């Protein structure tokens, strides 16, 4: 590419979203409502603790509240669900985030599905997944929503494009695939059992990396002019994409950090404000 | 292809499934339970009336019951939902089928979602869709389930294969894509806005035609040795696949009729028996 690659600036997109929330939070506060996100952290994984802290801080910076629930690493599914149910019925809590992953003894799906759909601002419930797949979710999963928001922000066309999603998790690969499909992309979903992955990725006009392996997506897999969205965040601030190698080929790319990550948090805040506004009726 | 193309005999697969149900229906009947499928037909579309009659007849041939509800073409969403709710609470009804499509004034999604998940034997609810997408639905949508069942019956490997699904409806294209994905296929989902459809289909080792247009899938799109599943059923007993042209290329293909159609009805019967057995506790 002789043209300069566009760096998709997630920090800027996130800031714009958050700027748009300030007046909404103020208006709510005039009505006596402070949007409140409850975060649940089970166990003491340091990365998870950092994520939860970042989300709490992001709330407070916008004048929102953050209720932090920390549970022992040995918490059972039943205990966790009881905590979630308390938050479901707490009128001061508008959104609930259960930090992923939870310790292995917990039935994560059961815990996610204990979250009331109207407080599922992180978009993790089974029902919320399907509503999103059918295009009418109140709160689509935050990382997929962030990816779509970045594409929209930079007016990158999706309709009729061939998008290749690498990864098929319930809160990332699957929902983002269906969201791109609903925007009229032709979508190929790849994963660990895919054969000839490089050849398939090389057909993509839009690549979504959602695989959780550092620098997994190779530069020589990328078609000239492709748009690359890197939803990975691995140890050492490295994404799922071999950034330097892919940068040369792509027409646009999200960096890591300051790409999809900050927009994901902004979507979470936006969804929490949306939920709080519903309390106004 | 010099080798003979395998004709995937849906009538035979369906018969095997129904044969397997006979003893289960008998056992239930000894306990005083007759598995009952309630069918709802709104309006007087002759094709829909035929489908409903076929499903009712299929029930009776197995010693199951079929409760046929016929509603006026002018029925409102509210009226339809009230009928569904009656069936939800009727202990003699084990499965509910709302014949698709419904007249335009009805909110089809709202009507589908009024069906209690434990009676959603046709797999049309929003929640059922997501449970299927995550691999734990009690009753996956019947046509997608039929396609997977045919692949299984003929021991056609899916893992690592590239499957191309043409169509993205909530009860066919989307769920079958996710079911193939869950079986470790690499899945491409195409639709009316897809560019270069023929080129994409020509990469497929498994082709699922779910588009609702007669003879839409062309022979020269088909890779030598591909497996073709035709979920279409158009006027004049014609599928979505140009059968004669595709037959020459495919290693295996479902005919129309006697392909996916009869297996779809068998899945509906099986799900209704499954639901009735749950009443035994």
How does the SSE layout of this entry go?
2 copies of one chain form a homodimer.
Chain A: E1 6-7, H1 10-30, E2 36-42, H2 46-61, E3 65-71, H3 77-89, E4 95-98, H4 108-114, H5 126-133, H6 142-153, E5 162-166, H7 173-182, E6 186-190, H8 197-201, E7 206-209, E8 227-230, H9 243-247, E9 252-253, H10 260-280
Helix pairs in contact in A: 1-10, 3-4, 6-7, 6-10
- For the record, the CATH architecture of the largest domain in chain A stands as 3-Layer(aba) Sandwich
Identify the biggest protein-protein contact and residues per side: A-B, 29 and 29 residues
Number of domains of chain A: 2
Number of helices of chain A: 10
Q: What is the H/E order of chain A?
A: EHEHEHEHHHEHEHEEHEH
SSE class of chain A: alpha/beta
Radius of gyration of chain A: 19 Å
Mean of pLDDT of chain A = 97
Total number of strands of chain A: 9
From the spread of the alpha carbons, the general shape of chain A counts as globular
Helical amount among residues of chain A, as a percent range? 40-55%
Strand order of the largest sheet of chain A: 1-9-8-7-5-6
Quick one: CATH superfamily of the largest domain in chain A? NAD(P)-binding Rossmann-like Domain
CATH topology-level fold name of the largest domain in chain A: Rossmann fold
Given this structure, which CATH class of the largest domain in chain A is correct? Alpha Beta
Q: What portion of residues of chain A belong to β-strands?
A: 5-15%
* Uncertain regions spanning at least 5 consecutive residues of chain A: none
């Amino acid at each position: 590419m002789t043209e300069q690659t566009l760096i998709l600036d997630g920090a800027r997109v996130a800031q714009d979203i958050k700027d748009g929330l300030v007046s909404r939070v103020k208006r709510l506060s005039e009505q006596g409502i402070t949007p409140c996100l409850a975060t649940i952290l089970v166990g003491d994984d340091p990365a998870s603790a950092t994520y939860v802290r970042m989300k709490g801080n992001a709330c407070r910076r916008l004048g929102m509240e953050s209720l932090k629930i920390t549970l022992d690493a040995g918490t059972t599914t039943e205990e966790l669900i009881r905590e979630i149910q308390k938050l479901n019925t707490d009128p001061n809590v508008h959104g609930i985030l259960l930090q992923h992953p939870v310790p292995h003894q917990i039935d994560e799906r059961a815990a996610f599905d204990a979250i009331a759909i109207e407080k599922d601002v992180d978009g993790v419930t089974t029902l919320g997944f399907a509503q999103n797949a059918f295009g009418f979710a109140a709160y689509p999963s935050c990382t997929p929503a962030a990816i779509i928001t970045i594409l929209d922000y930079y007016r990158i066309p999706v309709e009729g494009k061939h998008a290749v999603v690498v990864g098929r998790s319930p809160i990332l690969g699957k929902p983002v695939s269906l969201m791109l499909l609903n925007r009229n992309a032709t979508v190929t979903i790849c994963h660990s059992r895919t054969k000839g992955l490089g050849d398939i990725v090389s057909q993509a006009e839009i690549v979504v990396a959602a695989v959780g392996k550092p620098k997994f997506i190779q530069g020589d897999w990328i078609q000239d002019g492709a748009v690359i969205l890197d939803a990975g965040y691995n140890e050492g601030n490295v994404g799922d994409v071999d950034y330097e190698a892919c940068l040369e080929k792509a027409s646009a790319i999200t960096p890591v950090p300051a790409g999809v990550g900050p927009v994901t948090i902004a979507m979470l805040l936006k969804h929490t404000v949306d939920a709080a506004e519903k309390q106004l009726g």
